[in-house]
Automatic annotation (TrEMBL):
Record organism: Thermus parvatiensis
InterPro entries tied to this protein: Thioredoxin-like_fold, Thioredoxin-like_sf, Thioredoxin_domain
Domain Thioredoxin as annotated: residue spans: 110-287
Record keyword Disulfide bond present: yes
UniProt-listed Gene3D superfamilies: Glutaredoxin
Keyword Disulfide bond found: yes
Record keywords: Disulfide bond, Oxidoreductase, Redox-active center, Signal
Family matches, as SUPFAM superfamilies: Thioredoxin-like
Protein name, entry field: Disulfide bond formation protein DsbA
Signal sequence, start to end: 1-17
Family to which the UniProt record says this protein belongs: Belongs to the thioredoxin family. DsbA subfamily.
Pfam families xrefs: Thioredoxin_4 (PF13462)
PANTHER family according to UniProt: DISULFIDE BOND FORMATION PROTEIN D, GLUTATHIONE S-TRANSFERASE KAPPA
Length: 288
């Protein structure tokens, strides 16, 4: 019987060849006698890696890191393996690696391991409301207007994604994930963006907030030429909070650890700041 365990290794350092990258880039490195590594591809891109061979935590950690593209996963796996011998003796396990990968592991006299991306069913996301683009894979950004890393993403990565959306290569969707426990303006800013959306100006208002333009929401609305009375009435309407809370509840159901978190189609992106990985995962999503 397989059991699902959440494995948090948390290291977004420099990437190696990895899932979603062209298959020819993948190399498991040297293997001991009797060991075998097999790969599965979709449209020429790495989709899954399977290992059969001697029980060797260091080797398995290295193969895991080669598959995910996160070097720190090697050491993280070794540490986890050393602490979970009792669990492993009970039978095969399935590990959710940071919400992005599924690791299947069975250890006895021989080890069997498989790494593949986790798939999130489209129906779980519900309706996308703030969308740029009319066709292509949906890239969903779960974000917080007061989060400095989200602001960095909006300034460094989203311009390229917006251009791709305009070219018809993807659809870009925004989802609220306000971390109000540490960001007091997260919910008010999200509500203000909903009020801007009611006047057809969500993305323009989003860009002002993410540029660090301050928290005077009516003043930002005036900069965009929005109807000030309608905007103020919307801000004061408790119903404006409902879509914000709904998005946050979805983020929690998905088990997202923080912001920004990005999905490319059904795949959670391991590193949302690496633009090349968007292209890799877009190609993989299109191949499904």
């Amino acid at each position: 019987m397989r059991r699902l365990v959440v494995l948090l290794l948390l290291d977004l350092g420099a990437a190696w060849a990895q899932i979603a990258a062209p298959l020819e880039r993948f190399s498991p490195g040297p293997l001991p006698e009797g060991a075998r590594v097999q790969t599965e591809a979709r449209s020429g891109r790495l989709y899954a890696v399977r290992y059969e061979g001697p029980v060797n935590a260091s080797l398995m950690g290295r193969i895991l890191a080669s598959a995910t593209g996160v070097p720190g996963h090697a050491q993280g796996f070794v540490a986890w393996y050393g602490k979970n011998q009792v669990l492993l003796r009970q039978g095969p396990v399935e590990l959710n690696v940071e919400g992005a990968f599924l690791l299947k592991l069975a250890v006895g006299a021989w080890a069997e391991m498989e790494v593949r991306p986790l798939l999130t069913e489209e129906a779980l996301f519900g309706e996308d409301r703030h969308v740029l683009g009319e066709k292509g894979v949906v890239v969903r950004v779960f974000s917080d207007f007061q989060c400095p890393y989200c602001q960095r993403l909006a300034q460094e990565v989203l311009p390229a994604l917006k251009a791709m959306a305009r070219e018809g290569r993807l659809r870009l969707a925004y989802r609220h994930f306000p971390l109000y426990e540490i960001h007091p303006e997260a919910v008010p800013a999200a509500m203000a963006s909903e009020c801007a959306a009611a006047q057809g100006a969500f993305w323009a208002y989003h860009d002002l907030l993410m540029a660090g333009s301050g928290w005077d929401y009516p003043a930002l609305a005036r900069r965009l030429g929005l109807d000030p009375k309608a905007f103020q009435a919307c801000l004061e309407d408790p119903a404006s909070r409902a879509p914000v809370e709904a998005d946050r509840a979805l983020a929690e159901r998905l088990g997202l650890p923080g912001t920004p978190s990005v999905f490319v189609g059904p795949f959670r992106l391991p590193n949302p700041f690496d633009l090349e990985r968007y292209r890799d995962y877009l190609a993989l999503a299109e191949a499904l």
